[in-house]
Specification:
single chain, alpha/beta, TIM Barrel, two-stranded antiparallel sheet, 12 helices, Aldolase_TIM, BKACE, 3-keto-5-aminohexanoate cleavage protein, transferase, metal ion binding
């Protein structure tokens, strides 16, 4: 991304899109009973509360009536139907893992099978977005957590801690291409959850080869454990490599969430919060998902940046938009065009 002399002025920036991940699939209800929604009614009301606080993208996971993370797509269908009625302007973004919680004591945390995750393209009502990981990698979500972060929670149990410590993300090339094809055919926008520059490079190649043709909405996920850590040098190199036509959100874990989000607001990027990412405000002080949203809204106002409403967020994300081919996608995103047959030198965009 390019930054001009006026790029840090809030009046030149897009309005802020706040993504909230309030369902916290890694936590057990007893870990934060004041904020973990269990019943279907509570899960829907949680979305309403987050929308009222200022969030416009809802990262969706579902729970069963017993509080366990749901692995049933029928449960997601039920939740999506309720959300469509309750928060019609919110962008509904289903988490591509579906649920990664261990199925029984002593088992590893793991993502569901390739075939099951492909079925996200068949959800009804369909979500606006489904997130996708690129390139199989480690996803050790506890690497950056301190004992203070998870004291008194289920993660203090060695079996749970070790289950998440050993988690990996299955996202090989053949599966990724097929998943992109199915989501696009269903009219569902892909949201890319990326751990590093090499994964961003893979996305560019997918676009250049015609495997994906649409807007580039992506999140830099700085959670360590196989992903980038929340190092500002990593962050700025990732930002530098993102094309100007993309829409970039920054995400981190635990008490890194707020400083990363504050930098995102200042730089004209977008934010993600919620108890899936952090339970904390200041050290030792729990914050609900709604309180985290309200905090980001206050910071944005202090910096003079407007917060998008649901309809504005849909415009910024270009929900419902797809492109006809690789050439159009590269042009819309601001990438250099593909090399033409026999062309030498660095390909350049033609003047309009």
């Amino acid at each position: 991304m390019d930054f001009l002399d006026d790029s840090l002025f809030p009046e030149t920036q897009d309005k802020l899109v706040i993504t909230v991940a309030p369902y916290g699939p890694e936590w057990e209800p007893a870990d934060f009973p004041q904020d973990i929604a269990v019943t279907m009614e509570e899960q829907i009301q949680k979305a309403v509360d987050c929308s009222n606080a200022g969030a416009t993208v809802l990262h969706v996971h579902a729970r069963e009536a017993d509080g366990k993370g749901s692995k049933r797509l029928s449960r997601f269908n039920e939740l999506l139907a309720g959300l469509r009625d309750a928060v019609p302007d919110m962008i509904l973004q289903v988490g591509g893992s579906i649920s990664f919680s261990p199925e029984s004591e002593g088992e590893k945390a793991k993502w569901l099978s390739d075939d099951t995750r492909h079925m996200l393209a068949e959800l009804s009502p369909k979500p606006d977005q489904v997130t996708i990981a690129i390139n199989t990698s480690q996803m050790n979500i506890v690497e950056l957590m301190t004992e203070d972060d998870y004291a008194g929670s289920s993660f203090a149990r060695p079996d749970v801690y070790n289950a998440y410590r050993e988690m990996t993300v299955p996202a090989g090339p053949a599966w990724v291409e097929e998943h992109l094809r199915r989501l696009s055919a269903a009219g569902i926008q892909t949201h890319f959850q990326l751990a590093s520059v090499p994964q961003l490079e893979t996305v560019e190649r997918l676009i250049r080869h015609g495997a994906y043709a649409g807007p580039l909405n992506l999140t830099w996920v700085a959670i360590g454990g196989g992903f980038d850590g929340p190092n500002p040098c990593n962050m700025m190199e990732f930002i530098r490599r993102v094309p100007n036509g993309a829409c970039l959100t920054l995400e981190s874990v635990m008490r890194n969430v707020l400083p990363i989000n504050t930098m995102a607001i200042a730089m004209g990027l977008h934010t993600r919060c919620g108890i899936e990412d952090t339970l904390w405000g200041r050290k030792g002080q729990r914050m609900t998902s709604v309180q985290q949203i309200e905090q980001l809204v206050r910071i944005a106002r202090e910096l003079g940046r407007d917060v998008a409403d649901g309809k504005e967020a849909r415009r910024i994300y270009k929900i419902g938009t797809f492109y006809k081919d690789a050439d159009e996608t590269l042009s819309k995103l601001g990438y250099t065009p593909n090399r033409k047959a026999g062309e030498r030198g660095v390909p350049r965009r033609m003047a309009a």
